[in-house]
């Protein structure tokens, strides 16, 4: 079949390869000018060991403190509050214990397959060198905060996830540069990517080498008709008529889904980061600073500190005071880190759904249009498994994962 993919971010690119594998003709439509796309600036974690949605007891516990601090880990810009309200209401509803259980099961269903799917994809393209298998470390400033998360660790263990609780001396041996932490947990199976932007450019290059086409255009509407699905673009010459269309345009998918009769509660959790010269942090592996709202990753592009959740929509300018605040907090854990060095600062748009589950499935109007967006904090982690699910939908094959929890019609 002739398949148009709207959006060549990490999700669209992985889908392109899955469809090429199955002998389809692929046309990627993407203007290629979106510097805030999270595909390029994310933290690079294949965090398949994560099981909790954002609407979790951990977030609610920290929320009052976080909201008091305008530069803290989670902020809502007051001017954006009215626009965010419908999303927030759904977020509160998604925090009910039964709903958390449903989200956890659906996150786990995808995450359990996420790493094998990435390994298969990367090795088929001879890109396995992008995968770094050094585990991921979570650290806590205070022992009592760590004690409060033990139930989550038990749940992870019960799901067969490797969870190594470290003593303070283990921690010091593993990461000598790290100070002021009282507790730590190593997830030995978690991985990271050499550099997310580099991975995406390799995936695009190889898709084109494998015969995919690229139209440098912005899709403005998707219209299923008898003879095929029309993708209207901002330049008429780039319009496409395809047998099937996949919408994988991250946060920008919302207006496209609207043209197909689907009102999706998709909003953006804006994230920030700073990338310092390689080796600046002196850390050997990715680290989650629990309760602080940021993580670090040793990438090929440099040492990245990033995170934060800011609800402010797509139009507001970045507030890099948030990045500065994150760097100042990191410095407390890394006394030898020269925070005054030059660093590249970035802000990007996580495409987030209140229940922390992506939208994967056919549109309401026509099952020739398939959605694959809204992966929130897990878009890199889940891109390869998403591509398999999408290819199965296109080929009308059943998947091992029940797709009901990700349906666009669940809202
Ligand atoms: C600070 C930060 C750290 C993160 N860290 C991690 C992490 O460690 N691990 C993890 O798993 N996830 C992480 N994420 C989340 C992850 O980056 C995203 O979920 C993921 O990149 C989403 O990918 P995507 O392809 O759906 O969307 P995007 O990356 O947004 O790509 C969408 C593409 O669609 C294109 N597009 C937009 N509109 C149109 C249109 N109208 N027509 C055609 N094309 C269009 C854009 O140009 C873009 O190329 C992080 C996010 C942030 C912000």
Please characterize this protein's 3D structure.
By secondary structure, the protein is α/β, with parallel strands linked by helices. The protein folds into two domains: 161 residues, FAD/NAD(P)-binding domain; 196 residues, D-Amino Acid Oxidase, Chain A, domain 2, CATH 3.30.9. The protein has twelve helices and 21 strands. The strands form four sheets. Strands 4, 6, 7, 8, 15, 16, 17, 18 and 19 form a nine-stranded mixed sheet that branches. It has a six-stranded mixed sheet with strand order 10-2-1-14-21-20. The protein starts with a strand and ends in a 17-residue tail after the last helix.
The total of beta strands comes to 21
What's the architecture of the largest domain in CATH terms?
2-Layer Sandwich
Characterize the main sheet. Answer: 9 strands, mixed
Integer tally of domains: 2
Shape: globular
What structural category do the secondary elements indicate?
alpha/beta
CATH superfamily of the largest domain: D-Amino Acid Oxidase, subunit A, domain 2
Q: Give me the number of helical elements.
A: 12
CATH class of the largest domain: Alpha Beta
Low-pLDDT sequence parts: none
List the helices and strands and how they pair.
Blueprint: E1 2-6, H1 10-21, E2 25-29, H2 38-41, E3 45-46, H3 57-68, E4 74-76, H4 81-93, H5 97-124, E5 131-132, E6 136-140, H6 143-147, H7 150-158, E7 164-166, H8 168-174, E8 183-187, E9 191-193, H9 196-209, E10 213-215, E11 219-225, E12 228-233, E13 240-242, E14 244-247, H10 253-258, E15 267-276, E16 287-289, E17 294-299, E18 302-311, H11 321-333, E19 344-352, E20 359-362, E21 369-373, H12 379-394
Parallel strand pairs: 1-2, 1-14, 2-10, 4-18, 6-16, 14-21
Antiparallel strand pairs: 3-9, 5-9, 6-8, 7-8, 11-12, 12-13, 15-18, 15-19, 16-17, 17-18, 20-21
Bound molecules: flavin-adenine dinucleotide (FAD).
Flavin-adenine dinucleotide is lined by residues 6-12, 29-31, 34, 37-39, 42-45, 47, 218-219, 248-252, 271, 273, 306, 348, 350-351, 373, 375-381.
């Amino acid at each position: 079949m002739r398949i148009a993919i709207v959006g060549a971010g990490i999700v669209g690119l992985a889908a392109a390869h899955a469809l090429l594998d199955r002998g389809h003709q692929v046309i990627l439509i993407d203007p290629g000018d979106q510097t805030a796309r999270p595909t390029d600036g994310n933290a690079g974690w294949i965090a398949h060991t994560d099981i909790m949605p954002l609407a979790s007891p951990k977030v609610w516990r920290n929320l009052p403190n976080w909201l008091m601090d305008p530069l803290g880990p989670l902020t809502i810009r007051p001017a954006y509050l009215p626009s965010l309200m419908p999303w927030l209401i759904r977020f509160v509803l998604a925090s009910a214990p039964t709903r958390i259980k449903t989200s956890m099961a659906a996150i786990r269903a995808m995450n359990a397959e996420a790493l094998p799917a990435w390994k298969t994809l990367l090795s088929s393209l001879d890109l396995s060198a992008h995968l770094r298998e050094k585990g991921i470390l979570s650290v806590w400033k205070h022992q009592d905060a760590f004690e409060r998360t033990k139930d989550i660790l038990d749940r992870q263990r019960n799901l067969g996830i490797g969870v190594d609780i470290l003593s303070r001396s283990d921690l010091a041996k593993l990461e000598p540069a790290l100070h002021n932490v009282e507790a730590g947990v190593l997830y030995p199976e978690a991985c990271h990517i050499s550099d997310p932007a580099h991975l995406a450019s390799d995936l695009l290059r190889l898709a084109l080498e494998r015969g995919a086409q690229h139209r440098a255009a912005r899709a403005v509407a998707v219209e299923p008709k008898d003879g095929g699905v029309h993708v209207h673009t901002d330049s008429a010459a780039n319009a496409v008529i395809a047998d099937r269309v996949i919408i994988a345009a991250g946060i920008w998918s919302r207006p496209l889904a609207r043209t197909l009769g689907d009102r999706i509660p998709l909003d953006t959790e804006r994230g920030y980061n700073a990338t310092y010269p390689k080796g600046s942090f002196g850390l050997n592996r990715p680290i989650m600073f629990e309760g602080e709202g940021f993580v670090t990753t040793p990438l090929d592009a440099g040492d990245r500190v990033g995170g934060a959740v800011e609800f402010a929509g797509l139009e507001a300018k970045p507030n890099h005071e948030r990045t500065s605040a994150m760097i100042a907090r990191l410095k407390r854990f890394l006394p030898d880190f020269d925070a005054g060095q030059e660093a590249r600062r970035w802000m990007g748009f996580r495409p987030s759904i209140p229940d922390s589950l992506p939208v994967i499935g056919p549109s309401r109007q026509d099952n020739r249009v398939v959605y694959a967006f809204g992966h929130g904090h897990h878009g890199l982690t889940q891109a390869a498994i998403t591509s398999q699910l999408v290819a199965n939908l296109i080929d009308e094959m059943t998947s091992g994962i029940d797709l009901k929890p990700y349906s666009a019609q669940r809202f």
